[in-house]
Prior knowledge:
By secondary structure, this protein is mostly helical. The chain is built from 4 helices and 2 strands, in the order αααββα.
Amino acid sequence: MPEKEIALYAHLMDLPTHMAECPHASEAYRGEIQELLLELEENHPGTRHSIMAGYEELAALAAQRYRDDGTGADLTDCERCGSTTSGDVCRKCRLLEAL
Ligand SMILES: [Zn+2]
């Protein structure tokens, strides 16, 4: 039974309760994500690596964009697909080329 329903019931029945959500809800959520990732990794080896690689790519782009004056002057459009990139050709296109 969802805890919100219990809280609602307690409220309707005028029972003393605190309505706050379980303080561990976000931890439970994290655990769920972790389990999901482990399962994905098991079924599709390399999933975690590609997720991390994606994060690193985003972090690098963000760092570059907000460095110095924050205008992102170093970034250009990929000459193949038009994505924002730091070089002439974006990483995705270079990866596709390497395949
Ligand atoms: Zn591209």
